[in-house]
Design goal:
Strand content: 35-45%
Number of helices: 4
Distance between the termini: 93 Å
CATH topology of the largest domain: SH3 type barrels
Oligomer: single chain
Radius of gyration: 25 Å
Number of strands: 10
Shape: rod-shaped
Structural class: alpha+beta
Helix content: 25-40%
CATH architecture of the largest domain: Roll
Order of helices and strands: HHEEEEEHHEEEEE
Largest sheet: 10 strands, antiparallel
Amino acid sequence: MRWDALFHDLESQLQAATDARQESEIRERTRSEQSRVTLMQRLAGQAGRPVGVLTRGGRSLTGILTNVGSQWIALAVEERSVIVPLSSVQVLRSLGRSVGQPLSGIEAKLGLGSALRALSRDRAQVALWVASPVSRYAGVIDRVGADFLDLGLVAPGDERRAANIREVLTVPFASIDTLDSVARTE
């Protein structure tokens, strides 16, 4: 009987060592997989969910993540849409555990310029926030270059007409903190 107990004890020790080795391997594989997840994949997995963003300009926004581009995200915040360049993001809050697929095809090509060109084409009124010093400019995007935009400053509610333009600002993409849609006054 003593031999049976000894063999049973050895089998238990071997099983415990095997279980510990498997658990360690699983943890290591999980860490390895997580190390390959990009911020864009993490954000893509949050589409349609509430997300908090703190920008380098100090803006604290909470809204529904509506779009993810290769260099920007869009949030629905109250009654407006807000584009936040990834270069402006300092902290993200309330991200769930979901991870999306890497951006591919057209999505991977939708840089900040693409989003800004769409707003320019629509002649949408925007509020452009720059980070340093924190400033807000209201107007219509006149032109979008490779790494800058021209913003025609107009009074809120005014259409983009030559007579309504007070000044045109040229803003490098690197200076943009956020860009908000402006509700039209009817």
